[in-house]
Amino acid sequence: MRKILFGAALALVIVFGVRYCEHTKDESEQLRANTALIEKQIKNVGKLIVTEGNYAQVFTYEDSKKFYVDVLSATKKALVVVNAEATIAYDLSKVATEIDELTKTVRITYIPEPELKINPNIEYYDVQQDYLNQFNARDYNIIKSRVQKGLEKEVKNSTLYSNAQNRLISELSKIYFLTNSLGWTLEYNGNAVTDSAPIKL
Fold first, then answer.
1. 63: containing domain
2. Which pLDDT does position 6 carry in this prediction?
3. What is the pTM of this model?
């Protein structure tokens, strides 16, 4: 009788042991599968996002020089017309992440800064210049610098900038939706990303 009971108990231990090992193996395989899926999603997100916009500026450039103890003056001026194409790009291949399988957490550790490029086409109209004060390279450099600074300010205060950020957040949110569906947590800047606390740049 004792042998029968011992045999039955041993059989139960073996069965439960096998099932526990199978369960642990299944959990480990599922964890690896989820990790691979998250890594694939992060790789898919890693692309270049480019937002484009067109801008125009019109202003008058004027410069005066005085001669002979301010008795004579020579003035030059021109109407400057600018048409520019601006692009804001986020290279998401530079996004850095950490995957913690133990706590089932994905951490976004770095998001690249936006790259702003402005390509202005500058045209000059109604150019007026004196023999003693003619347009030269210095004037064109001053105008170009003024155009660049003015356009940068305009772009950063425009919807182009916010649209680019929204597109960036939309791409990064794909990581959140996947991690959330798998029961993982997404963190950025040390804070958990949730429906009520989305990614903020």
1. 2-192
2. 47
3. 0.67
